Amino acid sequence: MQLGNVLYFLVWAGLIFFMMRYGCGAHITGHAHNHGGSHSGGSWMPPDKAVDPVCGMTIATQGAKSSIHAGHVYYFCSANCRDKFEAAPASYARSESSSQQEGHHHGC
């Protein structure tokens, strides 16, 4: 292999390492800065309680059924409520979107 080829690959490897460590890929490798979300110690923690968007019941999130829609995590009191939500998420998420703070969506 020629020296030029080796240098070419080293430059690209260095650039990829830099982006994964400090750029948009930092959240994948666990090096992202806290952007005001509900991060503690670099990892996302669910809230203790949430409101089921289908029936309105306040539930403990630990052990609750959950679903992700449009980058937000929703918690449900039962599999039945989760199934109703997943069949038509827009009809339930729309009314919940303004007060929904449980989920965290990170974009570069």
Q: What is the radius of gyration?
A: 20 Å
Structural class: alpha+beta
* Anisotropy-based shape: elongated
- The sequence of SSEs as H and E is HHEEEEEEHH
Average pLDDT number: 76
Continuous helix count: 4
Unreliable runs:
96-108
Q: How much helix, percentage-wise, in residues?
A: 25-40%
Distance between the first and last residues' Cα: 36 Å
Biggest sheet overview: 2 strands, antiparallel
Strand content: 15-25%
Question: Care to count the β-strands?
Answer: 6
Physical arrangement of strands within the biggest beta sheet: 1-2
Number of domain modules: 2
Commentary on this structure:
This protein is of the alpha+beta class and 108 residues long. The protein has two domains: 1-34; 44-108, no CATH class. It is built from four helices and six strands; from the N terminus they run ααββββββαα. Strands 1-2 form a two-stranded antiparallel sheet. α3 (79-87) crosses α4 (89-96). It is elongated, with a radius of gyration of 20 Å. The two termini are 36 Å apart.
Supply the key terms:
alpha+beta; 4 helices; single chain; two-stranded antiparallel sheet; 108 residues; disordered C terminus
